[in-house]
Every structure is written in C-alpha cells, then in structure tokens.
Design goal:
By secondary structure, the protein is α+β, with helices and mostly antiparallel strands. About 50% of the residues lie in helices and about 20% in strands. It has helices spanning about 25-35, 105-115, 125-140, 145-170, 185-195, 200-210, 215-225, 230-245, 250-260, 265-275, 280-285; strands at about 5-15, 15-25, 45-50, 55-60, 60-65, 70-75, 80-85, 90-100, 125. The strands form two sheets. It has a six-stranded antiparallel sheet. A three-stranded antiparallel sheet has the order 5-4-7. α3 (about 125-140) packs antiparallel against α4, α6 (about 200-210) packs across α7 and α8 (about 230-245) runs antiparallel to α9.
C-alpha cells in the first residue's frame, strides 16, 4: 500500500540502502502554487520543472528555479516549493525516502550525504531524465506490465539523478578548490584504496584515511581528474570488454554478475551509453 499523500511508489535497494521513489499527489502541488504554504517533509523532495519558472523559498532566501532544472529539498527543510513567476508552470514532485536495511556496502550514508550536498542547488536535467520523470507520472499500476514499468522507471530516474550529480561535480569549480593537502603516506594509501581489486565505497575509503567522505571526494577529483564513481564505472566497462573478447562463450548475464551489476539490463544500458554499442555488437566486432 502506498503511503498517505502519494499516488504510487517503487523500491530501489542498493547495498544497505532502500530508496522509495514516490509520486507526490498532484492536488498538493496545485495548492502550493496558489498560495505560500511554509512546510517541511520527512522525505527528500525532488522537484523537476518542465516548463516556466518559479521561486523556491527556503531558509529565508529565494532561489530561481528555471525550465529544465531540478532541485532537492531535504527532510526538515522549511520551504515554499513554488512561487510562480510565469503563467505556464509545469512541474513534477517526487519524494525519496532513504531507509537503512541489512547490507554491508555502506550506501545508506553515501546516498544521504550526496543528496544533502546537492540540496537547494538548481541542477540541469538531461532530456533522458525528464522523459523518465514524465513516464513515471503517466504510469498507473493497473496491470502487471505497468507495475513492472513503474519499478524499472524508478531505477532509471535514480540513475539519471546521480548522473546529474556527476556532471555537476565535473563542472563545479568548488570541487577543485584548495583545502586540506594529503601527506605523502596518505596519498600513497589513497592510491592503494582507490585501485583495490575489491571496489571500496567512498565511506570505506574515508574511514581508512580518517577524513570525511566529502574531503575524500575532493582528493580523488583533484588527483585523478574525475569522481570516484566514474572511475569505478570505467573499470567495470574495461572488465566487460575483456570478458567479452577473452571468453566469447560466456553469456552476458554471467558477465553482469561477475563485474557487480544487479541485472543484465543495467549492464547493457551502461555499456551502450559509454561504448556506443551493445555488448553483443562489441563481441561480434572484436571477433572479426
């Protein structure tokens, strides 16, 4: 059963984190557009603006929210979500509950930290993410097929949101600002941890170095020129290429399990996005 005030929900579990993606009821959004209602939530609210512009009021300051952007409002943040600045305003509100569940990966703390870090900052939404958000709102769990599509779309929305964070980190000059400088032995340890065959999480690396996750993110960005999550993905893609060419008889589903993907679909999506072809096409061309 969906929580009160929501139309539909879908669960995404990664490691020790369960993220519940929910559609905020449309009538609530309309009410907020008509008058200023200062309020807060127990969940993360992701607002996506498809058309028009508005102000988001939070912590006694106004933030311009423009067409094609999304903004994250943290649990407990007092805010007025939409003060209209244009006649045509088309926005969508998703709720994310991040809950801790049994697991060893430590993604619960990571997800909460990265969501908090990007809160109240207008972020540009890709065309693909906008399409997925619109699809999520259009779907109704009236059949097995639609229920399946709701869950699949929720996964893809989260993937798109975190992709947006990566792009923001790459472009944001604040991530390259001068701060704490690692000592020589700490830098050597960072090399060992980042390049470990056991893919450590950012919280794991931070704990071993004795710094915060945010500081470690900056160290990695400055030293290697890219976020850690992109480094891990690049390694996964390289491992997939190697297995596709060196073990031509192994099915893609087994490759997905070996390199740490939850499903063959996720592997296909990542591989095509970063290589430009499907794993099967890559293997066929390699064999030629």
């Amino acid at each position: 059963m969906n929580p009160s005030g929501f139309v539909k929900s879908a669960n995404v579990i990664v490691g020790d984190a369960k993220i519940i993606v929910m559609e905020v009821m449309g009538k609530t959004a309309v009410l907020y557009e008509q008058k200023e209602v200062l309020h807060s939530h127990s969940y993360y609210e992701i607002q996506v603006l498809k058309k028009g512009s508005c102000n988001i009021k939070a912590h006694n300051r106004n933030m311009l929210f423009s067409e094609g952007e999304m903004i994250i409002i943290r649990p407990g943040d007092l805010h007025v979500p939409a003060i209209k600045l244009s006649d045509s305003l088309e926005k969508y509100a998703l709720a994310l509950r991040v809950e801790k569940c049994p697991g060893e990966e430590g993604y619960f703390d990571y997800f909460k930290e990265i969501l908090d870090k990007h809160a109240l900052i207008p972020l540009k939404v890709s065309r693909e993410l906008m399409e997925k958000v619109l699809l999520f709102f259009d779907l109704r769990p009236a059949s097995i097929r639609e229920t399946f599509l709701i869950n699949l779309t929720a996964h893809e929305i989260l993937y798109g949101i975190f992709d947006t964070f990566e792009d923001f980190v790459m472009d944001n000059p604040l991530t390259n600002s001068e701060g704490i400088v690692l000592r020589e032995h700490e830098e050597a340890l960072l090399d060992v941890l980042v390049n470990s065959p056991i893919q450590l999480t950012l919280p794991d690396i931070a704990e071993r170095l004795g710094y915060s996750v945010r500081q470690v993110q900056r160290f990695i960005q400055k030293k290697y020129g890219m976020p850690y999550i992109i480094m891990l993905r690049t390694r996964k893609i390289d491992s997939i290429k190697k297995l596709l060419t060196e073990e031509p008889d192994i099915p893609v589903s087994e490759i997905a399990a070996r390199v740490g993907y939850n499903s063959e679909t996720s592997l296909y999506r990542d591989f095509k996005k970063h290589v430009g072809c499907t794993p099967c096409e890559y293997r066929k061309n390699a064999m030629k």
